[in-house]
Design brief:
By secondary structure, this protein is of the alpha/beta class. It contains 14 helices and seven strands. The structure holds thiamine diphosphate and magnesium ion. Magnesium ion binds next to β4.
Length: 399
Amino acid sequence: MADLPDASTCYELLARMTLIRRFEEEAGRQYQRAKAGGFLHLAIGEEATIVGTTSAMREQDYLVGTYRTHGHAIARGTEPKRVMAELFGRVDGTSGGRGGSMHIFDREKRFMGGYGIVGGNLPIAAGLALSSEYKGEDAVTVCMFGDGASNTGNFGETMNLAALWSLPVFFLVENNLYGMGTSVERHSAQTDLSKKAEGYGISGERIDGMDVTAVREGVAEGIRQAREERRPTLLEAFTYRYRGHSAADPEVYREREEVEEWQRKDPIEAFAQRCVDADVLGEREVQEVRDKADEQVKAAVEFAEASPEPALDSLYESLYVVEQEAGWYAVDERSPEPHRGEREEEMPRAARELAEAGAAYGGQPDGPRPQARPNPAEQGDAQEGVEPEVSAEVEEGED
Ligand SMILES: Cc1ncc(C[n+]2csc(CCOP(=O)(O)OP(=O)(O)O)c2C)c(N)n1
Ligand SMILES: [Mg+2]
């Protein structure tokens, strides 16, 4: 376990994590009320990985994330009210209300998205690092992506060029043990993801992503190597999302006990307790952090509610559309008004049907469920010693 930093840093780490947690809980509620539209991917449970990473970055460094990045933007300093306005699809949102949950973006804070294509942010990160190199700018690009993304072709291509061109880039894989409904050992032949870039000349390490100090320390070293030695590295942080993949996830691929086991070592509560036990923070300060977070989130919702929707006639602004091809069909075939939310409302039912049909469980609807798995950073790799969760019979039998 890494040492605790000084009191004001501890306060800041706790404050950021708490703010992100409260923000996302509220975002979930606003989604239920259909105030936030589109898809919503919450990272509740992953706050230590997010804040530990950004706390090791300098202002001039770039961050590129996935579609699960409300917290990443807030951790980089984007105002929560602007993130909430984006979820609400309002003009004061970070992308003018055009991007929604998956496309939070803040150029000023050098948070370069927010990206919906799994693995698509990897080459973008290498490109940003190449541009820094080209311009002689003292900036490191930090690229955060999921365990699932480590299987994409982009992963290998990016690792190769990053190492070959000695780019100032640092990679962090947020291993939350699942890509949608598929567990790591069912989607990746190599489950030690820290080793996955070795063949490209990029070394890696594994850390406990539920410990904000461990993440901060590991990332600081990775960023240092990128900045000073132009040596890209890969850190694998074990973390866990408490909620489903998105708001429309019936979660048939994991057991309640597994979620509860991770919740018992909650990264925010554990860190607060550690700070109090070490006399670095008082109970009063911890409470103050919670109260302030609640206030900020309440203000964010009020701000988002008050912000107008983009004007209908601005629909084609900021789009790459060949003029003659623009047409209302892009919104809806029947009439020019956008029909908001219709499809999203269908999503929970559609997702359940898919899951029950076996799509989210690799075509093994009646097979044994995965066992609750402890944090591999503490307990070793899932491949070492854990029995395969699916019997050979089921594996061979169904399609
Ligand atoms: C190229 C591509 N393929 C598939 C999808 C659908 N998809 C969205 S999220 C996801 C799972 C990604 O899992 P992971 O990388 O582990 O990130 P996590 O959601 O766990 O944060 C998939 C397959 C997509 N968005 N892009
Ligand atoms: Mg994942």
